[in-house]
Structure formats: C-alpha cells, structure tokens
Design brief:
AP2 domain-containing protein, about 325 residues, 3 domains
Length: about 325
Amino acid sequence: MNIMNDPSSLPTLPAETVLPPEQDNALSMSDYALRREEPKGHRLGGWCVDIRRYTHRINRLFKDQVYGSADAAEAMARAYRDAITAAFPPTINREKATQIRKNNKSGISGVYRTDTGAAGEWRVYLCTQGRMKRRRFSVRKYGEEGAKAEALALREKWLAELPAKFLTFHDYADTVSRQLHPELLDEVPDVLPHAPPLSDEEIKAKLAEINARFDALRPPKLKVRVRRYGPESDSYAVYVSDLGYPARRKLTTAYQGKQSLEAMLTKARKKITTRIDQLYSPAVTEWFMHEYGNALLDPARFDPDEGFIISVWVPPELVKHPSPGES
C-alpha cells in the first residue's frame, strides 16, 4: 500500500528577497542559470540551478516531488539562483586580464620578453573591446630594466583605461551584480596578478551557509514503511525517514515469532512513534498517528504480505511549534 498526502494545504514557503526593491520584475523572472528537467522513467522532474563562478561549478536540483509541484520547485530554484548571484558576482574583465597563463615567464600577464632584434625587446599587449593593443620596447634603446618598466607602465595605463564590466553574457547577472557590487567596478588593479574577490575557503563557507539556509526551507516530510523481509519471514522492517537533505532515517526490525500480528504491530508502533518524536516532535507524532498511523497499524486492516509505505508532508506549524514542554 503506497500513500501520499495532498500538499495543496501547505502554506507558501518563505523565500528571502535578495534583489533590490527597484529590481525589474521581468528581470527577476529571467531564466538565467535555470534549466527544467522533465520526468523521465524513474527520474523525477525538477528545476536545476547551474552557475559557474571562478573555479567552482554550483549545481543544485529542486525536485517537484519535494516541494509539492513544478511551480513551487521553480520558485525555490529562482530564490536559490538569486541568492547565489548576489553572493558570488561574475569575474571582472580587469581581474581576468591580470591572470597568468601557464606559459607565462615574466610573471605579468600581457608582458613578455623576446629575442627579436640585436638585444631583444619587451612587448606588451591587451585585448580590449574586441581589438588587440600592442607595443614593443627595445632593450637596446631603453636598457633591460627600462624596456621592461616601459612595458609595465603602459600595461597599467591600458588597464586603467579599460571600461570595467562583469564577464557575463546575461543581462540578469550583469544588472544584479552592478546593483549589489558596484564597488568592484571602481577598483583599478595594477599589473600584478590579482586573486578573486573570495578565496576558495570563503566561497565554500558562504556556499555552505546558503545551502544550509535552503535545506531548512525544504517542506517537512515523513516517510514510514513497514514490510515483511520475505514471504516466509517472521521479521518486519520498520523504516522512518524525514526525506531531508541529507535524510535522517532509521531502519529497525520488529520480530513476530510466535506472537500475534497485533503484538508485532504494537512493537512497530512503538518504534515509529519514538523515531518521529526524535525527528520532529510529539505533536507531529500525534498528528501522524491520528491521520494515518492508527489505521495503517490496525491488525484488522494490515496485510502482512503487502505491508505499507507512506510519504506525507508534515504541517509546518507542528514542526515550528511543538507540544508544550517539548525541548
């Protein structure tokens, strides 16, 4: 017996507003970094958020089944996309221009020495607004250090003149980043390599905080299963899970042996109620047993060969406001 309750009565999930109040509604409904995954075979449908920032790929799937509908999953995916975009702005072109390539030998991006000419020369280049700027400085004319200094000075001048912009092809990411992180566009880097605004450890910590916040917004659910291990077995698997991310679950066994079916179901009832108390609260336990558990564990209705499995949305108010005296 498989049972799933109706999520239509659940309240709308809270979602934090991370965009400025003046943010255009059409922009907030952008499909930037969102991808719909339709149900196929055993794969459940959902909305996927997929964003690359610096060397990190941030990917998370919001399943329809978890949030009750495709619309609810999409709303949560958009909120997550907004939170990630607000926390991690795209790379800036000036910052990108100072990154060192693997074959660089000078230690400065866009500046290198060649053996061209009698004494060699230092060359400088910068790609800007679709065209390449290039200059060369002769070692014979300026001297070794002088030619290098001229190249570095010109490179720094070009960087300062380069109109700063976020490296993204999508209006949503560009507009949100300009509104939330305008100070990043005001920074004029020198020619030395610049680290990203956030270190790897800072990115991981901030991402963990955002994920924890959205984990907490998942609708509370409960899955309970009682099923015989095999046709001839006198033992029953009793499984209880909150279907969380990651799930808190526990599998125990209720033995019947020579006892009656009613005695075995009494054992199963005790294991189920104890585990729900641990996962949520006595208020949730009381609600579940009244709505589903008592009927499912009724010896007159329970089919030993079929057992039952039930997945239900838990009323959020019971989770937030446990019974008096519950710690």
